Amino acid sequence: MNVGIVGAGVLGLSAAKVLQEQGHSVTIFESRPDVGGQVVTFEVGGNRIECFYHHIFTNDTVCIRYIEEMGLGADLRWIESKSAILRKGRIFPFVTPLDLVKYSAVPIASRVRLGLAALWLRRQHDWKKYEGVTARKWMERAVGKAGFDGVWGPLLRGKFADEADNVGMVWLWGKVYLRFASRKGAGGLKEQLGYLSGSFNRYIEKLGEHVRAEGGVIHLNTLVEEVVVEEGSVRGIRAGGELHAFDQVLMTTPNIITRKIAPALPAAYAAVLDKVKYQWATCLVLALDRPVSDTYWLSVADDLAFVACIEHTNFMPPEEYGGNHIVYLSNYIPPGHPVLAMSADEVFESYLSGIKKINPLFDPSWLRQKWLFKDPGGQPVITTNYAKQIPEMRTGVGGLYLANTTQVYPEDRGQNYSLRLGEQVAGLMVGDMADVEPIPSPAARA
Ligand SMILES: Cc1cc2nc3c(=O)[nH]c(=O)nc-3n(C[C@H](O)[C@H](O)[C@H](O)COP(=O)(O)OP(=O)(O)OC[C@H]3O[C@@H](n4cnc5c(N)ncnc54)[C@H](O)[C@@H]3O)c2cc1C
After folding, report:
1. Which of 29, 72, 102, 279 has its CA 20 to 30 A from that of 336?
2. Ligand 1 close to Cβ of residue 59 (< 6 A)
């Protein structure tokens, strides 16, 4: 059968690979000039790096499998993460349980409650019991207001802004449960993070090459204008004004884009897609002549204009980037936020006082280059009872499927889970193929 796929991110590519393994032919349409989607990269100092910071955890086993299958296992580096939290103008290391004991930004009783809550959550395998409660409500009850305001409140606000109070506890459970599960260093006390030397895009490009080598076609720089539906069944994909006929079509686009390119979705299904809100992801990336701090991941729990400072070169050596020190200043913001209309220079200006809170000596003369990256589908907002809101992969239109980050649950979105979703949706499509009438090839129709 002939399958068309919208999007050459990791999900579209893993789905393509599985479909090919089952003997089907695939054609992928990608609006960007390269494969990789949100794992998009740019060049700094002769090496490629992600526009949006990326690392993986030791339990991201699907992603590790793909990296190994693409022959890059030897380049996957595991490094102890240096995490910290900025609170009340001070940087507190946040790596081991002892760091929590020393976290004097909250009263000692709150620290004990924070530690106990984390220990409790890491032992809870059944996330379903947290479905009906918001993260804020559960956490405030567990750790008190001071504990919540000192750690979890800022983290939730950072990721979800005005939507923070609506985020379901399952999302936060996933953060704690899965992060603990990935702790292997120092007898399970320290976390190890993985990074693919030369950027994660390397394994994704190889995956794209593999799909092509197996006979797949990947049209880059090709925006899908419409997924064409006739009499309740998918007919094909319109791109560049041309209709490409397919037996089945998989969309891997965020809901907001899906709604534009697939106008014929059943109203009930479209309503499910519209219910999920997204936060834009924005990263101001700085190339500096020296480090800002000695932390890799700094969560900001003070009121700054950005929510995290990720100093990539406290993870990978600056020598890999021509001696540049690379810093991501990350923000998740709702549609219409002023940062979306600003240039990199303007964002840098507005972040400057915040950078000086991390390092009072920071001077703009340290800056060699800067870039601003934005993605409208950065983070779906995972609310209470989300299991009931997850869009089905079958859209209700015969032969038309959707798989995207809104279906990652109870985990938080990540490459690992998009790769897994790609495999799952491909399995579903293959299973359904028996019921689909093949479209005659153009030659047969002539
Ligand atoms: C700020 C940020 C940080 C992240 N950090 C991490 C991390 O540390 N570790 C981790 O594992 N994951 C991380 N992720 C998540 C990870 O990158 C994503 O989960 C994953 O890449 C999503 O892949 P996907 O294929 O599902 O979607 P996407 O990558 O969004 O792919 C969809 C593709 O569809 C294309 N497309 C859209 N519209 C059209 C159209 N009309 N026509 C043709 N093509 C179209 C897009 O260009 C895109 O390539 C991060 C994401 C963000 C935003």
Report:
1. 29
2. no
